[in-house]
Automatic annotation (TrEMBL):
Record organism: Dromaius novaehollandiae (Emu)
Highest taxon of the lineage: Eukaryota
InterPro entries per the UniProt record, alphabetical: Cyt_P450, Cyt_P450_CS, Cyt_P450_E_grp-I, Cyt_P450_E_grp-I_CYP2D-like, Cyt_P450_sf, Cytochrome_P450_fam2
Protein name: Cytochrome P450 2D17
Record keywords, A-Z: Heme, Iron, Membrane, Metal-binding, Monooxygenase, Oxidoreductase, Transmembrane, Transmembrane helix
GO terms classed as biological process: arachidonate metabolic process; xenobiotic metabolic process
Swiss-Prot/TrEMBL cofactor(s): heme
Recorded GO MF terms: heme binding; iron ion binding; oxidoreductase activity, acting on paired donors, with incorporation or reduction of molecular oxygen, reduced flavin or flavoprotein as one donor, and incorporation of one atom of oxygen
Listed Pfam families: p450
Lineage of source species: Eukaryota, Metazoa, Chordata, Craniata, Vertebrata
Family to which this protein belongs: Belongs to the cytochrome P450 family.
């Protein structure tokens, strides 16, 4: 009996010890969390109430973040804050605010947040690619090199225009071979656009229907889907979870496979590389890597080669092909606009000659339609995340250095204070009373400032040549037995139309 009593008292002391420790740990953790989330600055932007540990993450629908932001903007104004666990985020909304940040305070907002979820792909302090690289010397060198090399390989020149025209011809043949039957244009358009960037980076184009290429596109789609939703956001802000064995491999399987694919393309180059004969962007990068220590310091290493080419492939294919798919969808939904574009093509180019970039100035209506596709299609609704490069005062608020900044491009492209009919497809947004094309400052699908899209010139050329070539040869109509396609889009980093079928009737 005495033994039992003794055991009982030992146990209760033990449990008391555990519960005291438990209480202490809980209080400590809550306090630590509170300190991490506490805003010790005056005039920090307003925002929704932040909960322990998860901050304001429950306020965001990560499958449609731009819609959540539009709601929060109504409540808190053009500059509001969010809290992704312990990461401070500020969201900028509306043309005036976004322009002030990206254009007038360009360097203040030029940094990018570190993105731990890409570490398993080789991203790290010595190799960050371009698109998500921290602002600084290495990013500047890589961006400069990439722009000048793309120009050497024809960006903004006749030589690349010829390549795009040739690819548009292949696309027309493939569309023609559908013989007016209903088909989903997605794969063909993707293939055509990817071929342009693939020839520039890897010196290769793939035939439509090529199995390897289908796999590459499928992997890239998986790549984008794996970036969307709550889990990747959580892993980014609580990177310790990525250390759990198997987590990155399981969550980002498609991304890993996509990079393995890029590795194969790069290795093939390394085997046949000849410094006297630079065939493409990859060869030019390999040449730069040979320049020794200085080149190494400027970021020219193997990991960066795979990341930069993956950046160009990723940024350069999905965005442009999605825009074209929006363009064809709007032509289906607005046949009267399609007729007007075709009338202008017939008048300026005719039915035989291939369109060239010089035609653009004589085609204000078509140009306005393409701009309106980009505005209304709103393909990158939130741009890429930025980060403040230093402590700043902005529109009466204090935003500390290292704050993640989201530029809500949707709120610019559909700003009610700027556009006459922000939520309608209305090409007249880009036409004056005489039917001449007018530039609009709030047209920012490529963003603006130091981190503005590096491929804007190429993208504009592709959009014009592909769009006019196809409408010169075909009229797009809705298949009779199909429901009217949805006009809203789905979000997976980019905003794409839901799959739809069309019939391409030869003209
Ligand atoms: C319609 C087509 C395109 C759209 C709408 C688009 C849009 C964008 C946007 C919104 C950004 C983020 C800018 C920022 O952070 O503020 C961006 C960045 C970028 N884009 Fe594009 N883009 C398109 C086509 C292309 C093409 C064809 C290429 C490649 C040749 C490309 C390469 C890049 C790169 C490398 C960046 C990162 C720039 C940096 O961080 O310095 N894009 N693009």
């Amino acid at each position: 009996m005495a033994l039992l009593l003794w055991l009982g008292s030992q146990l209760s002391t033990y449990w008391n010890g555990i519960s005291i420790l438990g209480i202490f740990l809980t209080v400590f953790t809550l306090l630590f969390d509170f300190m991490k989330r506490r805003k010790k600055w005056n005039h920090y932007p307003p925002g929704p109430t932040s909960l322990p540990f998860i901050g304001t993450m429950l306020h965001i629908d990560f499958r449609n973040p731009h819609l959540s932001f539009n709601q929060l903007r109504k409540k808190f104004g053009n500059v509001f804050h969010l809290q992704n666990c312990w990461t401070n985020v500020v969201v900028l909304n509306g043309y005036k605010t976004v322009k002030e940040a990206l254009v007038h305070r360009s360097e203040d907002f030029a940094d990018r947040p570190y993105t731990p979820v890409y570490e398993h792909l080789g991203y790290g302090s010595k190799s960050e690619g371009i698109a998500i690289a921290r602002y600084g010397h290495v990013w500047k060198e890589l961006r400069k090199f990439t722009l000048s090399t793309l120009r050497n390989f024809g960006m903004g020149k006749k030589s690349l225009e010829k390549r795009v025209t040739e690819e548009a011809g292949f696309l027309c043949s493939a569309v023609g071979s559908e013989e007016g039957r209903p088909f989903d244009p997605r794969f063909l358009v993707n293939n055509a656009v990817c071929n342009v960037i693939c020839t520039t980076i890897y010196g290769e184009r793939f035939d439509y229907g090529d199995k390897t290429f289908k796999r590459l596109l499928h992997l890239f789609e998986k790549f984008l889907n794996e970036e969307t939703g709550f889990l990747p956001q959580l892993l980014n802000v609580v990177p310790i979870l990525l250390r759990i064995p198997g987590v990155p491999q399981k969550v980002f399987r498609g991304q890993k496979e996509f990079m393995d694919f890029i590795d194969v393309l790069v290795h093939k180059h390394m085997e046949s590389w000849n410094p006297a004969h630079i065939r493409d962007f990859t060869d030019a990068f390999l040449k730069e890597m040979q320049k020794g220590k200085v080149a190494e310091e400027n970021g020219f290493n193997y990991n960066n080669l795979r990341l930069v080419t993956a950046d160009l492939f990723g940024a350069g294919s999905e965005t442009t092909s999605t825009t074209l798919r929006w363009a064809f969808l709007y032509m289906l939904l607005h046949p009267e606009i399609q007729n007007k574009v075709q009338a202008e093509i017939d008048k300026v180019i005719g039915r035989e000659r291939s369109p060239t970039m010089e035609d653009q100035v004589n085609m204000p209506y078509t140009n306005a339609v393409i701009h309106e596709v980009q505005r209304y299609g709103d393909v990158i609704p939130l741009g890429l995340p930025h980060m403040t490069y230093r402590d700043i005062e902005f529109q009466g608020f204090f935003i500390p250095k290292g704050t993640t900044v989201i530029t809500n491009l949707t709120s610019v492209l559909k700003d009610e204070a700027v556009w006459e009919k922000p939520n309608q497809f209305y090409p007249e947004h880009f036409l004056d009373v005489n039917g001449q094309f007018v530039k609009r400052e709030a047209f920012m699908p490529f963003s603006a400032g130091r981190r503005v899209c590096l491929g804007e010139q190429l993208a504009r050329m592709e959009l014009f040549i592909f769009f006019t070539t196809l409408l010169q040869k075909f009229t797009f109509v809705l298949p009779e037995d199909q429901p009217r396609p949805r006009e809203d889009g789905y979000f997976a980093f980019s905003r794409s139309p839901y799959p739809y079928l069309l019939r391409a009737v030869p003209r």
